[in-house]
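Supplementary Text 2. Reproducibility record for the structural model of the 463-residue chain.

All settings were left at their defaults, and a single model was retained for analysis rather than an ensemble. We include the record here because the model underlies the residue-level annotations in Supplementary Table 4.
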Amino acid sequence: MTKASIETPTMGAQDTPDAIYDARELGTGKTVILGVQHMFAMFGATILVPILTGLSVSATLLFAGLGTLLFHFVTKGKVPAFLGSSFAFLAGYALIAPNKEADLLPYACLGVACAGLLYLVLSLLFKVFGARRVMRFFPPIVTGPIVIAIGLILASSAINNASTNWLIAVLAVAVIIVCNIWGKGMIKIIPILIGVIVSYAIAACLGEADFTAVAEAKWIGLPVLWENTALSIFGAEFNSGLALTAIIGIMPIAFATMIEHIGDVSAISSTVNRNYMAEPGLHRTLLGDGLATIIASLFGAPANTTYGENTGVLALTKVFDPRVVRIAAIFAVALSFCPKFAAIIGCIPACVIGGVSLVLYGMISAVGVRNLVENHTDFTKTRNVLVAAVILVLSIGISYSAAGAISITLGSLIISFSGLAVGSLVGIILNALLPGADDYDPLAGADKSGDAEPQAQHLPLEC
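Retained model, structure tokens:
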């Protein structure tokens, strides 16, 4: 992934990106092939989220495609970004539906949809007050520990799945590592997809997979079922307490994913050498991402996020035309109408999922650590140590406690606050109240008193 500073340079007179920017000169055939390549780049990570959570694979592909097209519409068709499934919200789904319960997942989706509303709020704040005033409330000392906690909270799930067959799980890990470290070209871009395919194939040869559902599935069908949507819960059996628990428990995750979004847009700007943070502007990119997440969640699909994998493809191909990304989105939409394909994905054994998750969840926590390191967070300052300690202990401690959450009874309602929700909110408030909050310059990415190079708060949670 490309690392870039928050203040991305604009094009100079010596730059001639148009020679490698317009896909029309390549012809229809090559442009379509490039679009398919973008689809495969996002594919492995995007379909892994519904596999891990129990959400619909078909709905995921549908709203990844539609969300990308909506994002391009809101951003005036200028930003070559693809919106795929966000891994940051895995902890939220696990909080509400730890065993992939079909009747509980719509409540989790409602919480994610409400988290998407925070994108709209931040978009408005950016438009009205500017980035510097808003971002000071989300420095790396807050977002870094939140991301670390997300990965650690999910760790037990990866171990439980991997333990069903450690041989296959370790094989999946090995393939991902080999592809990511020694792979070339597209192999290096899609290590998760390759890891899933190789370990899945071997697991099938060893009799670990049951393909009965694949044989029974139709070739063509609707990707969205009403009972899977968040809208379906509003009826006679509506559980208001569970709905409030989902909203309160999941919304704080958006504090981390919004910073991730800003880092991704910064990385795309650096790759393409166009300042998308200024034009069309972060307020538009946040608005597009937020709207895509809200719509996807309401219809039973995972939250969306800008994908670093596709930024890697941009750097690889040197073709930056957003139309290529929109072609990938159209292919994703078309594939969502094939239930047989979704059934193939649904038959992936738990050991394969566990092996991939071992890498994935560890990477989430590692990205949180990297965020702290790259932004030169000063842990000789007691205030920084206190903020990080409170976030980590509350987030992880409450999650692994006997109750798994803090419950408050209001009349007939029982509202539960997840560890991540408590840790995030307390950390944000504590950081704002303690002396030294103004020492961090959000547009430089380091303490004002330091001499560090500017770094981006880039949190690529999707990979």
